[in-house]
Amino acid sequence: MNLERIDHVQLAMPAGEEEKARAFYRDTLGLPELPKPSHLAVRGGAWFESDDVKVHLGVDINFVAAKKAHPAFIVRDLAGLIERCENGGFEVVDDEPLEGYGRVYIFDPFGNRLEFMEPLR
Prior knowledge:
By secondary structure, the chain is of the alpha/beta class. It has one domain (9-119): 2,3-Dihydroxybiphenyl 1,2-Dioxygenase, domain 1 (Roll), CATH 3.10.180. Helices cover 21% and strands 31% of the residues. It contains three helices and eight strands. The protein has helices at 18-28, 38-41, 78-87; strands spanning 9-13, 33-34, 46-49, 54-59, 72-74, 92-94, 101-107, 113-119. The strands form two sheets. A four-stranded mixed sheet has the order 1-4-3-2, with helices on one face. Strand 7 (101-107) and strand 8 form a beta hairpin. It is globular.
């Protein structure tokens, strides 16, 4: 067996906060929402997917934000993303430089840490 790729990233969210998830993942990050299969939709949460990026949010009744563990996304126009997130009231944090990349951490509306990286040309 060889691992080939990651199909999706699952993050936790509190119950009943799907509109906040949509405001961030769909409206701010630009990931289209995909309807969850009906047998999973009853659990709450939301799925956001493009051709190359899939983020699934699942409800955790004992929700605790992931403040350290995080997915990292390669982006184009990091400056534009930072501006949209700051304008939307989402926390943006600069971190130590990483050779060859511009990067920041952005916290989703539930406090989950996400890393966004843009290769420097």
